[in-house]
Structures are given as C-alpha cells and as structure tokens.
C-alpha cells in the first residue's frame, strides 16, 4: 500500500501544482495560508512540514520563520521532493529548507525538536493515521502547535453531494485528459475512509495532544485540525 501511494504521487508530480490551482480555482493558497497561521509559527522557530510534496507549506513556513528560523520538509516521493527543491532554489527562501526523503510514520528526528508543524493533504494518505499523529506528537516541543489541512466529508448531504459531483465530473475527467485518471480517482475512496473532524479530534487526544480542534473550511469540504502539545 505504501509503495502504491508513493507511486501515485511520483506519477502526478509533473502536473501536481498546476492541477491544484485549476481544481481549487486558486483557493488552495488561501487554505494553506490559514494552516500556516493556525500553526502559530513565528520568526526564529524550527518548523516541520510533513508530507511536504512540492513544498507549498514549507516555503510559506520559511517566509514566516525568517532568516533565523529553520524549516524541514519531509516526504517519501522523490519526484515531488525534486520539484520542491527546484522551487526553493528558484525562490531562494531564507532560511534554506532541508528537504528530507523519509516516511512520516518513522520520522528521522529526536523527540521534542519542533516549535510548530504543518501537514497539507497528507494525513488522509498515510497508511496509519494514529501512528502519524504519535510521531508528530513525539517530535513537537512542549507548547508547540501543529495544523493539519485536508479534505473533509461535510455533514450536510447536499454539500457532500456537490463535493462528490465535483470530484467525479470535474476533477477525474480533467485528470483523465492528462493520463492521470486512476491517480485522481483515488481521492474519493481516500476521503470516504478518512475520519471526520470529530473523529480526528478524538484520535489526537488519545495519542496525547492536550488540545485538538477541527476548523471547517469551504462549507466543511475541507478542514484544519489544530493541535497543541502540553
Ligand atoms: C491542494 C488540494 C489537493 C491536493 C491533493 C490531495 C490528494 O490526496 C491527492 C491525491 C491524488 C491525486 C491528487 C491529490 C491532490 O492534488 C486541494 C485542491 C484540489 C482538489 C482536487 C479540489 C477539490 C475541490 C473541492 C471538492 C471543492 C471545490 C470548491 C470550489 C470549486 C473551490
Ligand atoms: C496530496 S500530497 C500533499 C503535498 C503538499 N503537502 C500540499 O499540500 O500540496 C500528499 C503527499 O503526502 C506524501 N506522503 C503520503 N504518505 C506519506 C508517508 N507515509 N511518508 C511521507 N510522505 C507521504 C506523498 O508523497 C505526497 O507528496
């Protein structure tokens, strides 16, 4: 399963950023900016972006922490990490970001290292959500926050129906034109099995986070799970 997921993201890497802009009508930048704000990252901080992909959130964190901060971006897709590296060299962020190829279920960091963390559209894709939250909790410092942005299944049946319609009739057919039908068709079942905001909060409390709140975005079709470690 892990290999299959990595292969999906390696295949979509060349068009990933362009398709996110199209499908979200450019709105994913706003959602990501909200996650950065909720992570409470500040100048001079040491920050972590899990499942960093092509680096959108890590680059935003780098701008936030400034030249005295440090940012690590972790992902297991070599192709998306190559895009992230190329983008960061082009944009020349201060500090330079350390891009690390690793599995977020086994983070290559000591305990209690990070002041803030983000994860964008990663939690739904990991094979063990509980383990992923445990690893995140382990590497955060006491008092640190994390913001986890992802899709969400809205409770309102009409909005849920619109979300499903959009995925089935806009996203998958457009991706099919680029030869990526199966890759984008994967979003829908991954969303079906993803815990709701309420369930995510419960899981986060169980692994030891002192507080956990799920904030709905885009009429509950997306959400940000905000976590604090005591
Ligand atoms: C940045 C976005 C999604 C990232 C993403 C996450 C995944 O798990 C994938 C899995 C497999 C292939 C690709 C991805 C992937 O790109 C969010 C924006 C893209 C969405 C496809 C857009 C979905 C929009 C919502 C259903 C609601 C639309 C509201 C409005 C039209 C803005
Ligand atoms: C949808 S992309 C999100 C990328 C980026 N965070 C964004 O918001 O655009 C999901 C990413 O999670 C990564 N991923 C999934 N499971 C992972 C794991 N166990 N360890 C490391 N990366 C993982 C994939 O390689 C992919 O880059």
UniProtKB/TrEMBL annotation:
Molecular function in Gene Ontology? 2-phytyl-1,4-naphthoquinone methyltransferase activity
Pathway membership of this protein?
A: Cofactor biosynthesis; phylloquinone biosynthesis
| Task of the protein | Methyltransferase required for the conversion of 2-phytyl-1,4-beta-naphthoquinol to phylloquinol.
EC assignment: the record states 2.1.1.329
Q: Which UniProt keywords apply?
A: Methyltransferase, S-adenosyl-L-methionine, Transferase
Q: Which NCBIfam families is this protein grouped with?
A: MenG_MenH_UbiE, PRK00216.1-5
Q: Which PROSITE patterns does the UniProt record give?
A: SAM_MT_UBIE (PS51608)
Family label: Belongs to the class I-like SAM-binding methyltransferase superfamily. MenG/UbiE family.
Q: What is this protein called?
A: 2-phytyl-1,4-naphtoquinone methyltransferase
């Amino acid at each position: 399963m892990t290999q299959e997921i990595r292969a999906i993201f390696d295949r979509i890497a060349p068009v990933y950023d362009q398709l996110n802009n199209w499908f979200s009508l450019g709105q994913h930048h706003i959602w990501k900016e909200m996650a950065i704000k909720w992570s409470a990252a500040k100048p001079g901080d040491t920050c972590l972006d899990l499942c960093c992909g092509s680096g959108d959130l890590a680059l935003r964190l780098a701008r936030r922490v400034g030249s005295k901060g440090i940012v690590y971006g972790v992902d297991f897709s070599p192709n998306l990490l190559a895009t992230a590296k190329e983008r960061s060299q082009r944009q020349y962020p201060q500090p330079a970001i350390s891009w690390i190829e690793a599995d977020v279920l086994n983070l290559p960091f000591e305990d209690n290292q990070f002041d803030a963390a983000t994860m964008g559209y990663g939690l739904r894709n990991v094979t063990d959500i509980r383990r992923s939250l445990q690893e995140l909790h382990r590497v955060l410092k006491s008092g640190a926050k994390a913001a986890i942005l992802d899709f969400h299944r809205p409770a309102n049946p009409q909005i849920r129906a619109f979300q499903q319609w959009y995925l089935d009739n806009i996203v998958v057919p457009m991706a099919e034109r680029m030869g990526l039908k199966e890759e984008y068709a994967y979003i829908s079942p991954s969303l079906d099995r993803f815990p709701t905001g309420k369930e995510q909060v419960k899981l986060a409390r169980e692994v030891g986070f002192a507080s956990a709140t799920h904030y709905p975005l885009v009429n509950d079709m997306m959400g940000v799970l905000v976590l604090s470690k005591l």
